[in-house]
Write a structure and sequence with these properties.
single chain, about 240 residues, alpha/beta, Rossmann fold, six-stranded parallel beta sheet, 6 strands
């Protein structure tokens, strides 16, 4: 049975490494943020996204057409994993999610904000995605289409353990090859990779988790406080 899997991630998470991991599977095709152009064409965000012009010129910006491709398009492998940013899910009927498997990839919002603000200096709550992840949890849980919640912390602490459990939730076999990949860009990378993927291009596996002291000031600290209750709730349901 073919699988169509959405990984709904916050920005500045380990979603690209996650995508690279699944790209190593012998039965999986991966697609990098297919709804990005749709999001940019519909967003009212004040955040400036690097590479916007190129994204809009090279990707389909009609979200309905993108969804149709995700559901009915032809792919090289039986299973397809779509790396998605949760905040890209705007101005779309969400019923297509019930026809797919869905995973939430969460991260401590303080870490997200500290990293995100280095590239986009004025993020708001919708840009961080955690509130929408909470909303997706409620929506998908009711219809039995939420496969799992994965916290980046626990995935980095024990990649094999967490990925094995996740594969079980998705009803696909774990493959040892998911734990390592070649350094450098991949053909699946979106055209925005040059702005965001420098670190992951140097990696060959999930990097070990490191505790860090995160200091946020002013609006960034206030944003983290708004995000924290949603993260705390979702953390109770993570694979670990």
């Amino acid at each position: 049975m073919r699988k169509r899997i959405n990984i709904w991630s916050s920005p500045r998470n380990i979603s690209t490494a996650f995508m690279y991991s699944f790209a190593q599977r012998t039965d999986m095709t991966v697609v990098d943020e297919p709804l990005y152009a749709h999001f940019l064409s519909k967003t009212n965000s004040e955040a400036a996204h690097p590479g916007t012009t190129e994204i809009l010129e090279t990707m389909e910006s009609d979200g309905t057409k993108v969804v149709d491709q995700m559901l009915r398009g032809m792919y090289p492998n039986d299973h397809v994993l779509f790396k998605q940013m949760t905040h890209h899910l705007i101005h779309l009927e969400a019923d297509f999610l019930t026809k797919m498997d869905n995973v939430l990839l969460i991260r401590d919002p303080r870490r997200i904000i500290a990293s995100y603000a280095k590239v986009i200096p004025n993020p708001a709550l919708p840009d961080i995605g955690i509130k929408m992840q909470y909303d997706l949890f409620q929506q998908l849980s009711k219809v039995g289409k939420l496969a799992a919640v994965v916290d980046a912390k626990y995935l980095l602490l024990d990649p094999k353990k967490v990925l094995s459990q996740l594969c079980a939730h998705l009803d696909i076999p774990f493959q040892e090859r998911m734990l390592q990949w070649k350094a450098g860009p991949r053909q699946e990378d979106g055209c925005w990779a040059k702005y965001w993927y420098a670190n992951v291009h140097q990696s060959t596996r999930f990097m070990p988790y490191e505790e860090k002291e995160i200091k946020l000031l002013g609006n960034l600290a206030e944003l983290a406080d708004k995000c924290q209750p949603y993260y705390s709730f979702l953390s109770e349901y993570t694979i670990r």
